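Hi F.,

I've been meaning to write this up properly since the lab meeting, where we talked about keeping a consistent format for the predictions we share between groups. The idea is simple: the sequence comes first, exactly as it goes in, then the structure tokens exactly as they come out, then a line or two of notes. No screenshots and no reformatting. I'm using this chain as the first example so we have something concrete to point to.
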Amino acid sequence: MQIGCPKEIKNHEYRVGLTPASVRELTSRGHRVLVQTQAGAAIGLSDEQYVAAGAQIAPDAATVFAQSDMIVKVKEPQPQECAMLREGQILYTYLHLAPDPEQTAALVKSGAICIAYETITGPGGGLPLLAPMSEVAGRMSIQAGAAHLEKSKGGMGVLLGGVPGVAPAHVTIIGAGVVGTHALQMAVGLGARVTVLDKSVDRLRQLDLVFGNRITTLYSNAQSVEESVLAADLVIGGVLIPGAAAPKLVTRDMVSRMKKGAVVVDVAIDQGGCFETSHATTHAEPTYLVDGVVHYCVANMPGAVARTSTFALNNATIGHAVALADKGWRQALRDNAHLKAGLNVAEGKVTYEAVARDLGYDYVAADALLA
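Output, unedited:
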């Protein structure tokens, strides 16, 4: 199979879909890999390293898309990339379709086979291709929140961990999944006072066993969310419903009553965000104010630590990339129900139920296309 890796073009996105090590995995199995020139240069991965791994270098994205049977990316395709997709071509990347009707329509129109990292499941449950970026984003959320609590960044001027004789900041984390757990580790490590909310009492029990009286755990309901948000200096939104739009757990009214200079970091923004006041921002302009509350809603947070993120992501994605290349998409999906869960759009049909429901498409089960 001919596999293409274009350079990412989203604002301040420096990650790359394939590392030289991943290229070597594919070329050693007889596949041809075409990498756009300078695709990994920003994170220290040179064209020479890709050539040494067996890749060929393409002068531009148009060449990569035109000559490849499968496109491997990181972020969702931008409009000019969607226009280059063709019928039957495999697209293997993050998609986050539920809050993005324009991209969904473009992918449906293309007729391409669109497999989303974020909905591929794992043998032990969970979302193993989303997990590494959720780990990065969870840890980054505390770094970003702490920085934007500084007065010069628009915050109230509070040091996250406090100092002897002065109370630390109060951090509220909504959601105790991968994002929430890694945010919790960072916040506790920096000395903040932390409250974490989740619907799973079992998960809260696990965290309580690990962190003990260093954190407060609360069952998530409308009352506990409101009280915790209003008491917080920093709120992390880390709630995910796989493939679907994130639930709006923090209302505009709650935000209007938060402390002035408080910070919210909406890690769920790729799926539309869990604050009613959230809209996606970029690393170039990461924040905005609503009722005196700083909103950090960068849609590709891990892109800020692009080298770490690229290697972590490739560790998770290369196995399925090899299967798709070796077997073709139909056989690879027939053989692996977890990979099949990643199929979101194929041959002009929406094949992921939550996306179809949220965006008003007829749902066509993947099995119907694999029969």
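Notes:
The chain has two domains: 2-119+306-370, 131-299.
The longest helix spans residues 306-327.

If this format works for you, I'll send the rest the same way.

G.
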